[in-house]
Write a structure and sequence with these properties.
Layout lengths: L9 H10 L6 H11 L4 E4 L6 H15 L8 E4 L3 H14 L7 E4 L6 H9 L3 E4 L1 H9 L10 E4 L2 H6 L3 H9 L6 E6 L4 H10 L4 E4 L4 H6 E7 L5 H11 L5 E5 L2 H13 L4 E4 L5 H12 L5 E5 H4 L9 E4 L6 H8 L9 E7 L4 H11 L11 E4 L2 H10 L17 E4 L14 E2 L2
Parallel strand pairs: 1-6, 1-7, 2-4, 2-5, 3-4, 5-6, 8-13, 9-11, 9-12, 10-11, 12-13, 14-15
Antiparallel strand pairs: 15-16
Bound molecules: adenosine monophosphate.
Adenosine monophosphate binds next to helix 3.
Length: 426
C-alpha cells in the first residue's frame, strides 16, 4: 500500500515524500482512511509506530477542506511538553504545502508569547492540559470551534493525574466533534474515558504490546546497585556506544547519575520535569546531534521523545510497572531497525524483572558481567557496602562478590583509612 492509496491530498503526499517515507505504517494504513471518513478512533499505539502522522495527516486534510477562521479547529492534548513540541513540529512539517497554522502551548515557559501566538490565530492547537486551562482562564484561547479532539498518550495523561484537567477542557469544547484517542496501554480508567468520549470508535491495535519488544535485542546484567554506574560507564566505553538513553526512576537519581557519568568522562545530560524547558530542549538537541553520549531521563520526561535511530536504551533501574519497560525499549528498534535494551538489575529488582518477563512471555537473557573497574571514592565506598549488603573485608573492599568488579586506584581512602589499591576479583 502507498500513501496515494489512502486518499490524501497531493500537498500531503508531497510532504510525506519530502520526509522520505516510502509507505504508510500499519497504524497510518488504518487510521488515515477512518479519520478522513470522520470516524472516532481508539488506537492502541505507542511512540515509534508513526501514530503522529496517522492523525496529523487526515486532520490537516479535513481542516484544509473548509475555510480557516484562525480559531483552533483541531486540539491535540499531550501529557508532556516534549511530546507537544514534537506533535506541533510534525503538524508544521506535514502541513508545509498547505496554508494551515499550528500553535503549541505548554507550561514551564512564559505564557505571554503563547498568548501572542494564539492572538495571531491558528488552525491546530497542540497543548498540555494545565497550560491550556490557564490560557482559557485568561480568555486567551477560544475552543468553541474545535472540530477534532486528539488525546495523545491518553494513558500517560491519566497516570500523570490529568483526568480532572481533561474533563475541564472537554467542557470548553463543542458537543459535536470528532474524537481520537491514542493510548499504548488499556487500563480500566482508559476504557472508561474512551466509553465516555468516543462514539462508535474504530478500534485499532497496531503494536500489540510485545511487537516492538520482539525486535529489540534485550539483556540483563545482575549487578549490585552501587556498582551499576561503574558497569554502565564500562559498557559505554567498551561497546563504543555513541548514543544511549538511560532511564532512572527519580529526578534526583537522574541528576546524580548524569554527574557521575560526567565524572567518568562520558558526556551526559539529564532530562526530567524539574529541568527548565530551555535545559530540556538543549539536552535533547545535544543528544540528537551527538554532542552528548548519554541522556539520562525519567520515565515521564522521556515519553514521546522522538529520537531517530536510537541504538541503545538502558534501564539503569527497572520500572515498577512492567508496561513501562515495553515503552522504554520501544524507543529503540524503530521502523524495522534493530536496537538494544540493556537492563541493570540489582538483587532487590529481581521481582520486577520477573513481572516484565511475564508480560513479555519470555525470559530476558542474563549477560555475564564483564570485568569493570570501580574507582575508589571516599564516601561512596561506605555507602556501597551498606546498600548492597556486601560485607567489606578487612582490606576495605567489597571485592570478590562480583565477577567483573575491579577496583582502581582512585586516590580515595576507604572507611578504615587505607588508600585504595588495585584489586582483581577472582
Ligand atoms: P511517531 O510514532 O509518530 O512518534 O513516529 C515515529 C517516527 O516514525 C517519526 O520519526 C516519524 O518521522 C517516523 N515515521 C512516521 N511515519 C513513517 C513512515 N510511513 N515511514 C517511515 N517513517 C515514518
Amino acid at each position: 500500500m502507498s500513501f496515494a492509496d489512502l486518499g490524501l491530498l497531493p500537498e500531503l503526499l508531497r510532504a510525506v515524500a519530502d520526509k522520505g517515507y516510502d509507505a504508510p505504517t500499519p497504524i497510518q494504513q488504518q487510521a488515515i482512511p477512518a479519520i478522513l471518513a470522520g470516524r472516532d478512533v481508539l488506537a492502541g499505539a505507542q511512540t515509534g509506530t508513526g501514530k503522529t502522522a496517522g492523525f496529523v495527516l487526515p486532520i490537516l486534510q479535513r481542516l484544509h477542506r473548509s475555510a480557516s477562521s484562525r480559531t483552533p479547529r483541531a486540539l491535540v492534548l499531550t501529557p508532556t511538553r516534549e511530546l507537544a513540541a514534537q506533535v506541533a513540529d510534525s503538524a508544521r512539517d506535514y502541513g508545509r504545502h498547505l496554508a494551515l497554522r499550528t500553535q503549541v502551548v505548554f507550561g514551564g515557559v512564559g505564557i505571554n508569547p503563547q498568548i501572542d501566538g494564539l492572538r495571531r490565530g491558528c488552525d491546530i492547537l497542540v497543548a498540555t492540559p494545565g497550560r491550556l486551562l490557564d490560557l482559557a482562564g485568561q480568555r486567551a484561547v477560544d475552543l468553541r470551534a474545535v472540530e477534532v479532539l486528539v488525546l495523545d498518550e491518553a494513558d500517560r495523561m491519566l497516570d500523570m493525574g490529568f483526568i480532572h484537567d481533561i474533563r475541564r477542557v472537554l467542557k470548553l469544547l463543542p458537543e459535536v466533534r470528532q474524537n481520537l484517542m491514542f493510548s499504548a496501554t488499556y487500563s480500566d480508567d482508559i476504557r472508561a474515558l474512551a466509553a465516555r468520549l468516543l462514539r462508535e470508535p474504530l478500534a485499532i491495535e497496531v503494536a500489540p504490546r510485545n511487537a516492538t519488544a520482539d525486535r529489540v535485542e534485550q539483556c540483563a546484567y545482575r549487578v549490585p546497585k552501587d556498582h551499576k554506574r561503574h558497569l554502565l560507564a564500562h559498557l559505554v566505553r567498551s561497546q563504543g556506544w555513541t548514543q544511549a538513553l538511560v532511564f532512572t526512576r527519580t529526578k534526583h537519581g537522574a541528576n546524580r547519575l548524569a554527574q557521575q557519568l560526567e565524572r567518568a568522562g562520558i558526556a551526559t545530560a539529564a532530562i526530567h520535569g524539574n529541568k527548565s524547558q530551555a535545559a530540556r530542549t538543549r539536552a535533547l538537541a545535544d543528544f540528537k546531534q551527538g554532542r552528548i553520549t548519554a541522556l539520562v531521563a525519567t520515565e515521564v520526561a522521556a515519553r514521546g521523545l522522538d529520537i531517530k535511530e536510537l541504538p541503545v536504551v538502558v534501564n539503569f533501574e527497572l520500572p515498577n510497572v512492567p508496561e513501562d519497560y515495553v515503552h522504554r525499549i520501544g524507543r529503540t528498534a524503530r521502523a524495522g531497525m534493530d536496537g538494544r535494551a540493556v537492563s541493570l538489575v540489582a538483587p532487590d529488582e529481581a521481582p520486577l524483572l520477573r513481572d516484565i518477563e511475564r508480560l513479555l512471555r519470555r525470559a530476558i537473557p542474563v549477560a555475564a558481567l564483564p570485568q569493570f573497574e570501580i574507582p575508589v571514592e571516599p564516601e561512596r565506598t561506605a555507602v556501597a557496602s551498606r546498600h548492597d549488603g556486601a560485607r567489606t573485608p578487612p582490606g576495605g573492599h567489597p571485592q570478590g562478590r562480583h565477577p567483573g568488579a575491579q577496583q582502581r586506584r582512585g586516590g580515595g581512602r576507604h572507611r578504615d583509612g587505607r588508600s585504595g589499591q588495585r584489586a582483581r576479583s577472582r
